[in-house]
């Protein structure tokens, strides 16, 4: 037993999943605030949404720091996820001729089996999304000098292919979140006979609420 | 019930380095009360009579205790019946004429020795890193000298029921050994007898688990569903807590 035992914690299978869980939960946090802010699009007066966007923009340095942290979180999550997935493939180098599902209490599902695909597609969507809005047309609101982001959003969400791709992307996000929430707690060692079933239910609720919430905006605008 | 016929698709592989493939066999006039392994024995007798190479399978007690047997039947480790070993699968569980696939426990950490027999020594090497407790020699200790609450004792006993069959690894899409290692760590982490080596145990066993090339745990929980002892993935969470405590505190 002369081998050195204290390895760098992140260089272990247990540690890498901690990093994935923490970065994933941070992204969850971001999604919730992003969604709540975007709900101002449901207000009749376009000025409210524009004002909200302007308030964020005016934060200046603080906004840059927050954006930087968000990008960093995404990078950590994605790189860790890719690494973990490649390692997992290596560990199961020969696949089964027939692979079954053992049924409950297993949580293996379409959602848990496709995390890397839903994740990568969601990321592709994020790039497209940021390009379209943050770096999109810069209209100026008529009666104030601030950016009329509302007009751009409405224009985009009146376009068939954009609304359809948003719907697909949000369903993929919902699938990712469905397994993610419970999984993050389990990765952090949080399991309890009484509370874990509630965490699992809350995960499903979150997946539906977040994906459904984001989906409701383009759909609502499209039909108005 | 009348006797049945089945078509089998069995993984055949001559040796560790040889390529393998699924080979079709038919077995006829099988009594529904026969166990799956007895059916395999019959097939092997047939093959021997025909001068062919019999199919290599592992088994020992054949009463669900030892964990030596282990086949993936119809894509499920230890077959479709939960909380049983392969040896407790009976032919009455299959429909007459059904095609049944039989494969080895697959994992890069479980090299195939021949056909359906795999080398599970990787699990033994994890155990050798701390799956035991130090005891003073001498007479048996007084039975009630170390009080342990019923709840704690039950948790430790649940974890200790692991027979090390490796079905968790076989069923895991990532071939993770987290349930096996988690059970072995959790078993001692709950008891005062395990406390002297508590930190060292989790660090060294987890490190060995990684070294053997098992995958990461994605929390699919498929392991819990195929475990012949029904060991819960909450023991994986326990291992993780033990690991955090040992490496951070
Ligand atoms: C908005 C974005 C996202 C959120 C809220 C999110 C959240 C999460 C959470 C909470 C987990 C559970 C971690 C665990 O099992 O411990 C997770 C797992 C995972 N995420 Fe994400 N994620 C997001 C985006 C992405 C992206 C862009 C990728 C791209 C590669 C990705 C790939 C993965 C993978 C592969 C796993 C599972 C790894 C495994 O098998 O254990 N995720 N995600």
Description:
The complex is a heterodimer of chains A (224) and B (249). Chain A is mainly alpha-helical and 224 residues long. Chain A has a single domain (12-86, 110-223), classed as Fumarate reductase/succinate dehydrogenase, transmembrane subunit (3 helical TM bundles of succinate and fumarate reductases, Up-down Bundle). Helix content of chain A is 70%, strand content 0%. Chain A has eight helices and no strands. The longest helix of chain A has 31 residues, at 61-91. Chain B has two domains: 4-113, Roll (Ubiquitin-like (UB roll)); 121-248, Orthogonal Bundle (Fumarate Reductase Iron-sulfur Protein, Chain B, domain 2). The longest helix of chain B is centred in the last third of the chain and has 15 residues, at 234-248. In chain B, β3 and β4 (76-77) form a beta hairpin. Helix content of chain B is 33%, strand content 13%. In chain B, α3 packs antiparallel against α5 and α6 crosses α8 (234-248). In chain B, the strands form two sheets. A five-stranded mixed β-sheet of chain B has the order 2-1-5-3-4. Chain B has a two-stranded antiparallel ribbon with strand order 6-7. Chain B is built from eight helices and seven strands, in the order ββαβββββααααααα. Chain B is elongated, with a radius of gyration of 20 Å. With 249 residues, chain B is α+β, with helices and mostly antiparallel strands. Chain B has helices spanning 36-49, 121-127, 150-160, 167-171, 178-189, 198-211, 222-226, 234-248, and strands spanning 4-12, 21-30, 72-73, 76-77, 99-103, 112-114, 117-118. The chains are: A mainly alpha (224), B alpha+beta (249). Chains A and B meet through α1, α3 and α7 of A and β4, α6, α7 and α8 of B. Protoporphyrin IX containing FE (HEM) sits between chains A (17, 20-21, 24-25, 27-28, 31, 77-78, 81-82, 84-85, 115-116, 119-120, 122-123, 176, 180, 183-184, 187) and B (216, 218-219).
